[in-house]
Amino acid sequence: MIELYESQRAMRNMRKSAMQRGVIAILDVGSSKIACLVLRFDGNAALSESSAMGAMAGQAGFRVIGAATTRSRGVRFGEIDTMAETERAIRTAVQAAQKMANIRVDHVIVCFSGGEPRSYGLVGEVGIEGHVVSEEDVSCVLNACELPDIGAGREVLHAQPVNFALDHRTGLLDPRGQMGSKLATDMHLLSIDGTVIQNIAHCARRCDLELAGLYSSSYAAGYAALVEDEQELGAACIDMGGGTTGVSIFMRKHMIYADSVRLGGEHVSGDISMGLQVPMGMAERIKTMYGGLVATGLDDREMIDIGGDTGDWEHDRRAVSRTELIGIMRPRVEEILEEVRSKLDAAGFDQLPSQQIVLTGGASQIPGLDGLASRILGQQVRLGRPLRVQGLPQAATGPGFASAVGLSLFAAHPQDEWWDFDLPVDRYPARSLKRMVRWFRDNW
To answer: What is the pTM of this model?
Structure first.
């Protein structure tokens, strides 16, 4: 009846099917790298249909048995730009991870950072006549949320209840089984450019993979990089990738806002390439080995041999001081952080009780970034590494793998979303139902 509802439920059912078989793949499709993890679940991994909501759900046990990365090709700003090249890169990463795991994988959960995410806060309320709150009541209150006009060509990626209120009591994670007369909810909806989703789904099919879930990289990175107290009290995660920088805000263990800036580490490398007149590969190496954001007196004397193979002896014997390199890198990083600050201000981050900001992602490893971010964002800033996951290779434990690790945690323990509950068609007002069906028909 409603394509979104059915497609999302179908992906959830594929995830459960894969978990029952005991193995599933995680794919982080980024602008600079594509990472693949193969997870093996224990016998208790499959979650039942009646599993509890959100934080109440039992953590399924899993182990990483395969891991591989490859340089991303055909992806710009977190979106597929050249289908054939992206397909080859995904096949390379998946096949290498399968070879390490010594097992074939058919189902994959994907995260991506593009699509210009937009957040909406929805509110719903229903009367329940003083009886015990049931699963159907939760479905009714979620469907009572007024759907916004997200715009033509855009699709809903996440729609999560982040808070429940029963009569005068609010802040409930799971109202089922409690008594009251009025049930209300706050729901966070994240919309994405529909073409981006369709391209990723098509690319997965071309790679002979069944899509068992789609997630925002900002969401996955925040889930992995924020510690439990930060997720509970309120914190922002800045996921600095190659082509984009994701911004997500968490409160009470739920994501309540997400956005992105179309700038990342590759733009810093591009500035170095242009400023020093060197190829992009060499610029990336110089950034990784010598880069920084805060110059000292010693940096004037530290010279970096640029080298080259043009045949021009003078050109190939060049050297620059580290101070010059920092002077090229810092303006671009300041621009990225200024854009991030405007996103946080628009979201009202300064109104949250906790003002913690966590930097993660591959580009967050530039020396001096935390100090510069603290000055520009005006908050407490720390560098975040993803949670340790059993079996994860040492090479995959850095900030650049926050999204992949977060996606692994979601595979075992997904947050409840709107489509996890049955639509109560018989109890839903006909006029509202028609309006909702019309909205989905126009947008899907």
So the answer is: 0.86
Cβ atoms of residues 133 and 178 within 8 Å:
yes
* Helix residue ranges, H only, 243-279: 265-276
- Span 214-264, pLDDT tens digits: 999 999 999 999 998 999 889 999 999 999 999 999 998 899 999 999 999
CB-neighbour burial class of residue 36 (10 A; exposed 0-12, middle 13-18, buried 19+): buried
The whole-angstrom separation of Cα 119 and Cα 121 is 7
Characterize the bridge pairing of strands 245-251 and 319-321.
unpaired
Q: Across the chain, what does the average pLDDT equal?
A: 85
DSSP letter string over 188-242? EEEEEEHHHHHHHHHHHHHTT-EEEEEEEHHHHHHHHHS-HHHHHH-EEEEEE-S
* Per-residue pLDDT, 97: 95
At 124 the three-state DSSP class reads strand
Binned at pLDDT 50, 70 and 90, residue 316 comes out as low
Secondary structure of residue 248 in the 3-state scheme: strand
Specify the residue for token string 């991030």. Answer: 340
Q: How many CA atoms are closer than 13 Å to the CA of 215, on its beta-carbon side?
A: 31
pLDDT of 441 higher than 50: no
pLDDT, mean of residues 45-72: 60
Asked whether 302 and 315 are in contact (CB, 8 A), the reply is no
Q: CA quadruple 424, 164, 184, 149: dihedral positive or negative?
A: negative
Q: Quick one: fold of 118-192+420-443?
A: Dna Ligase; domain 1 (3.30.1490)
CA distance 318 to 298: 20
Q: Are strands 169-172 and 154-166 parallel, antiparallel or unpaired?
A: antiparallel
CA 248 and chain centroid, separation: 8
Residue type (1 letter), 253:
K
